[in-house]
Amino acid sequence: MKILVQGKTQGIILKSQHPINFLGTVDKKTGIISDKNHELFDKSIKNSILVFPSGVGSSVGAYTIYSIKSNNSAPLAMICQKADLTVATGCALANIPLVIVTDEKFSSFQTGQKISLDTESPSPITFL
Amino acid sequence: MELTKEEESALKGEQGEIMQMAYRILVATGEATDAEKLIPIEWAHLSGVNYNTIGDAGEEFLSGISKNARVKVKTTLNPMGFDIDNVSNYHLDDNFISKQLSIRKSYETMGVTPSFSCIPYEIFDIPKEGTQVSFAESNAAIHANSFDNLKTNKESAFSALASAITGKSPYSSLRKEDSPNLTIRMKIDNPNELTYGMLGFFAGKVGNNSVNISGVGEMDRRSCKALCGGMGTSGTCAKFLFGDGDPDCEKVDFDKKEMNDIHDELNTAEKGDLITLGSPQLGLEEISDLTSKLNGRSFKKRCMIFCPRIVKEQARKIGYTNELERAGCEILADCCTCLTPLISKDNVDSVTTNSIKGAYYLKNSNGVDVNLKSLSQIIEDETR
Question: Distance between the two ends of chain B, CA-based, in angstroms?
Fold first, then answer.
């Protein structure tokens, strides 16, 4: 596991098998996924532990992450399979904890599971 | 990642809040890309300029940091939302205009060159081979790595800004001599810029950091830009090399099926209410070529042309502007098809374009249908 942005939180997993292009896919005010072709279409990422493979697309997506945080519509934390610069820097600025996990760990997560995340702990992710 | 004493002190906040924020971003970026250290860069190109994309949060953020933040290296800027010369011809509200001008002012206060262009590689002198830069605009990063002998990460808006403020960037894999582990075999005969855009879009989907592309012949400027624009839109891949690559490289074909799948994904209309050209923005060479292709013909519907201001000025001096305006074109500087606030689904159902990058964002952000056509086809069908 790699810790990109530190933090501590707990919440319910919302998982997508698809990458997310934050610019153009996520509504900046509500945190709702607006891309009809996306697996999470019409779902809100607000206050979730958002689990997805990685971010894709335009770098301006980092500002979208900052925007959803400013509008209190951001996830509590993000967990990715692969690190990408848009999500890493967006989370760094918005102070949203972000960790990268192994493929095996990634496939163990399911939407609806409750977990606790503490990047300072020896075992940062625990199922509740 | 190893930091020097000075970098550590900045990260702890001993050089002020702006430096602390900038180094926090660089560290997150460095950890994300397995960089072992920070290195100096000579040129930063920032995205995050258009009010349509960064919104109030971005505008307030930039206004806040511009009080203290100053750039340390040459820093250029992506397009904004409109061309101030003709903004009154479009239905933009006063709030949009004033917020956009505030963003412009914040960047200028920080010492950024207000170039408002997504093709810095075409309008500025290219530094010597191997120079480390930090380009946030995805098509520009790919172009810099693949055609201009420069080295950059595919930066985010924030990592490029942090690089501009500190003059440093993480030493990530794209900055080193790497060899791609995937080769895309181009199988389409007689490709045009639309084909190259779709090839790029495909490469971005299947590639990781970098890819080889084989089976590609001589490409003109328009096709090179289409390839970079398409690739930057669909994935994280930020460099390609021409050739077969290592013999043990995984091989993937880009053939009719792959191309048709992408065409079907992005082409949602039989015809467009208007035409847009320029995503990436058009350079002087493409404007000159368009003028000669028109050869006295006129567009049957609105045609918006997006280019950098310096190109608009050069075009006016040479006389291309007169010819394009005669043909019914609207020429817009400082902005781009991609994420333009000037096209809205309230008054436009569908747009014809030759840009895969433009098509993706018109469809997903502007919410309009897209009709894809090559430039030659556009001139054949849409002019008289």
Answer: 61
This complex has an ipTM of 0.78
Q: Return the CATH number of the domain spanning residue range B5-175.
A: 3.30.499.10
Among A61, A66, A88, the residue with its CB nearest the CB of B28 is A88
- Tokens representing A47 are 């206050």
Cβ <8 Å between B31 and A88: yes
Q: Do A67 and B31 touch (CB under 8 A)?
A: no
- Between CA B279 and CA B366 the distance in angstroms is 14
| Cα–Cα separations (whole angstroms), residue B113 to B4, B55, B168, B324, B380 | 30, 21, 18, 28, 39
Within B33-74, residue ranges assigned H as helices are 51-65
Q: How far is the C-alpha of B312 from the C-alpha of B289, rounded, in Å?
A: 14
Q: What share of chain A is helix, strand, coil (3-state, %, to 5)?
A: 25, 30, 50
List chain B domain ranges: 5-175, 182-264, 267-382
Q: Which residues of chain B have pLDDT under 50?
A: none
**Rounded CA gap, B109 and B276, in Å?**
32
Q: Which residue of B has its CA nearest to A69?
A: B57
Spell out the alpha helix ranges (H) of B207-283.
Answer: 221-234, 256-266
Q: Beta strands of B146-248 (E only): which ranges?
A: 168-170, 182-186, 211-214, 240-242
Residue B149, sorted as left (phi over 0), alpha (psi -120 to 50) or beta, turns out to be left
What is A2-127's CATH number, 3.50.30.10, 3.90.870.30, 3.30.530.20, 3.40.190.10? Answer: 3.50.30.10
Tell me, yes or no, if A73 is annotated catalytic.
no
CA B16 to chain centre: 32
Percent of chain A with pLDDT over 70: 98
B290, B294, B300, B305: CA torsion to nearest 10: 20
pTM (predicted TM-score): 0.87
Provide the residue type at B61 as one letter: F
Count CA atoms closer than 13 A to A41's CA, side-chain side.
6
**CATH number of B267-382, picked from 3.40.190.150, 3.30.499.10, 3.30.830.10, 3.40.1280.10:** 3.30.499.10
